[in-house]
Amino acid sequence: MSADKNNLPEEEQQGNNASSTETSTVEEHSLPDHGEAATDPVAKLEEELSDMKDKYLRLYSEFDNYKRRTSKERLDMLKTANQEMVVALLPVIDDFDRARQSMEQAQDVAAVKEGVDLIYNKLFSILQQKGLKPMEAVGSAFDADVHEAITQIPAPDESQKGKVIDEVEKGYYLHDKVIRFAKVVIGA
């Protein structure tokens, strides 16, 4: 074909050269210039940023839903937290109802006292099973962490100075935590 090109008249050869020049200029324009190459990483970064924003929004809404759900569960748990204790105390209430009915017709005071003692023991054993423990304050040294001093009286002897002489109101622990301080009288 190159031989044929040489045999062509000069105008056609120039025409062929012109078309090859046009092809080369078209090819040059279709190649990406440096400006487009610079925007390609920017577009990539913008896409990554939008992905990160989307992940952030999803995570934020998921965490917000988690907070709402856990606060609702906590409220529900607080409403029913004492249910176990109340159910355990229902037999004691039944016993008190029966005791009140029998007191109306009772002639024997000793039988009524015995019934009340049985109910008290039943109630106290249920509370002990749930972790309630009474404080032993009388005769022990005064401790401001578990005792509340109501008053001071002169100690009967020197060995009782600074110790609990009398207990006005019993204190209680619930699982080794003070839930009511013992109100005591201490010797001075």
Your description of this structure?
With 188 residues, the chain is an alpha+beta fold. The chain has a domain at 133-188: Head domain of nucleotide exchange factor GrpE (Nucleotide Exchange Factor Grpe, Chain A, domain 2, Roll), CATH 2.30.22.10. The protein is 63% helix and 15% strand. It contains 5 helices and 6 strands; from the N terminus they run H-H-H-H-H-E-E-E-E-E-E. The strands form 2 sheets. A 3-stranded antiparallel beta sheet has the order 1-4-5. A 3-stranded mixed beta sheet has the order 2-6-3, with no helix packed on it. A hairpin with a 2-residue loop joins strand 4 and strand 5 (177-180). Helix 4 (83-105) runs antiparallel to helix 5. The longest helix has 47 residues, at 34-80. It is elongated. Residues 26-46 have a biased composition (Basic and acidic residues). One of its GO terms (molecular function) is protein-folding chaperone binding. This is Protein GrpE.
CATH architecture descriptor text of the domain at 133-188: Roll
CATH superfamily membership of the domain at 133-188:
Head domain of nucleotide exchange factor GrpE
- What is the helical fraction, as a range of percent? 55-70%
Report the major sheet: 3 strands, antiparallel
Count of β-strands: 6
| First-last Cα distance | 129 Å
Mean pLDDT: 80
CATH topology of the domain at 133-188: Nucleotide Exchange Factor Grpe, Chain A, domain 2
Write the element-wise H/E pattern from the N-terminal end onward.
Answer: HHHHHEEEEEE
Assign an overall shape.
elongated
Tally of separate helices? 5
Rounded Rg:
47 Å
Instruction: Tell me the strand percentage band.
Output: 15-25%
The CATH class designation of the domain at 133-188 is Mainly Beta
List the uncertain runs. Answer: 18-32
Instruction: Assign the structural class, choosing from mainly alpha, mainly beta, alpha/beta, alpha+beta, or little secondary structure.
Output: alpha+beta
Give the spatial strand order of the biggest sheet.
Answer: 1-4-5
For this structure, the quaternary state is single chain
Subunit structure: Homodimer.
Pfam families: GrpE
Biased composition (Basic and acidic residues): 26-46
Family: Belongs to the GrpE family.
